[in-house]
């Protein structure tokens, strides 16, 4: 029995599709934990067991992890609480349930940075690494998927790319750093969840095929979208003010700012990955053509019409 948390999110829905397709041949049963079952795709109805509730709730994970062999663990973003509450606080009931129900293997989504000088002061990344330690201390075999920034974060700038030809971040324009497509994270998770041979605790870097700077991203987007795209570097103070203006938890905002600062100081680039960590990864240009371009070329009015 494999349990999938956050099955309707960016990573979880792709993972669920992969596991539903693979499960019959592997003889695996699947169970999902979801707040709103109506958000599950029609294609999985009748093919997975559904536990309704939040996987941060003790009674929900007690039901969800009973009889489970493996669990995919992903903490949903919650900017209304502190980073520690968002990651370790949310995960603590699950860690107890892993031990209570003898879950053998857990695959979790985490972040790059462990072992770097910046890791202790990297805000949300530091909190994510502490969550990894909490899960590992539960006694399960654990693999944390150590991820950099996602290509999909650029979808938040689809409107500004469409109207102004601009995307925004806080990194230096010429600083290369790894990025990854969420589809690659899902594929890596699926491979581990279907494999019962691994033991112990470890980290698996999940990276795109090459490090890219914001200037590189702008150049590739310009080529793939057929329109000029520029990068605007946002000062950290401006980012802080903007996020606080949305009413987010002040400690969470500081965690975001600290993470951005650490990334600009080389947090993600500190890893020297083995070649297999990038093998078969999605090229940014292909992701632009398949995912970003349709989002940019679809006007809000056209999207509403559908």
Low-confidence stretches: 301-306
Strand order of the largest sheet: 3-2-1-4-5-6-10
Average residue pLDDT: 92
CATH fold-type name of the domain at 2-150 and 179-205? Rossmann fold
Query: Terminal Cα separation, in Å?
Result: 38 Å
- Main beta sheet: 7 strands, parallel
Name the overall outline.
globular
Proportion of residues in β-strands: 15-25%
What CATH architecture of the domain at 2-150 and 179-205 do you see? Answer: 3-Layer(aba) Sandwich
Radius of gyration, rounded? 19 Å
Structure annotation, total helices? 11
Helix amount = 40-55%
CATH fourth-tier homologous superfamily of the domain at 2-150 and 179-205:
NAD(P)-binding Rossmann-like Domain
Strand count: 11
Multimerization status? single chain
| Structural class by SSE content | alpha/beta
SSE pattern, N- to C-terminal: EHEEHEHEHEEHEEHEHEHHHH
CATH class of the domain at 2-150 and 179-205: Alpha Beta
Index terms:
single chain, 306 residues, alpha/beta, Rossmann fold, seven-stranded parallel sheet, 11 strands, disordered C terminus
Question: Your description of this structure?
Answer:
- This protein has a domain at 2-150 and 179-205: 3-Layer(aba) Sandwich (Rossmann fold), CATH 3.40.50.720.
- It contains eleven helices and eleven strands.
- The protein has helices at 10-26, 58-65, 83-100, 124-136, 158-164, 182-193, 214-225, 236-245, 250-264, 284-297, 300-305; strands spanning 2-5, 30-34, 49-52, 70-73, 105-111, 141-147, 149-150, 166-169, 179-180, 201-205, 230-233.
- The chain has a seven-stranded parallel beta sheet, sandwiched between helices.
- Helix 3 links the parallel strand 4 and strand 5.
- Helix 7 (214-225) crosses helix 10 (284-297) and helix 8 runs antiparallel to helix 9.
